[in-house]
Design goal:
The protein is an all-alpha fold. It contains 13 helices and no strands. About 30% of the residues are buried. The model has no long low-confidence stretch (mean pLDDT about 85).
Length: about 260
Amino acid sequence: NFLAGLFFFILPNMLFFSLIADQALYPFLFSLTMWLTIMVSRQNKRIIPAILLGALLYLDIFLSFSLLPALGFVAIWFLLNLFTNNKDRQLSLLKQGIVSGLIFVLLCLLVWACTGYAPWERYLSAFSNHRAIKQIQLFSGDSLSIIFLNHFEFFYWSGLVILPLLLKSMINSIKQLLNRHITLPVIFNTAILLVWIILNLAGQTRGEVGRLWLFITPALMILVADAVKEWPQRFQIGLLAGQMISAALFFQVYYIP
């Protein structure tokens, strides 16, 4: 949907955090991972896409722990498809998922054996340092306040109108899933919803998500576009214009030449 692309490119945080990996590289890699995951799940016999997906997942986590949710998306996508397809299709999906998982694990072990680089050690250290900087204690009473803060900051920098549209799309997908009206868009929206929930519950940051969560914005904009796809075109144009005005106001207030 071209609307998703337009929304993505006029988000205030996308325009502000320019020329850094968070703004361009990580959203691209997350989008590429989503696309390749969907392509793999639609292939019955071709094994190359599954191999490429496993390699891409390793590249994701090698570059940044911000892309760890990409692993979650792939796992959730395959699980949802397994539970909503017939037995023959389930077997094909299982084979594709196993191939991708094996390639991912083999690359982790190969790089570790050749260079001594262990992603698991890096991540444990990185998360520990990040929690110390952000003064976060796991499973503390501050969890709800941190979730509220992160949501407010993210949607403040993305445009507050995005939140109700995102919720509308997610609620519609849940209703269709419960009614057994299962389509690929419904599975996609549900997968992103579950990734979003996990990101909030397991995420280990306090604030700064206007930048740190940019990687998932392409997926969220697809959900927003899905929420307004049946609107009259003039309303869609009005929403885009409102977002552009919002971005312009942000530049007026926050931009320092």
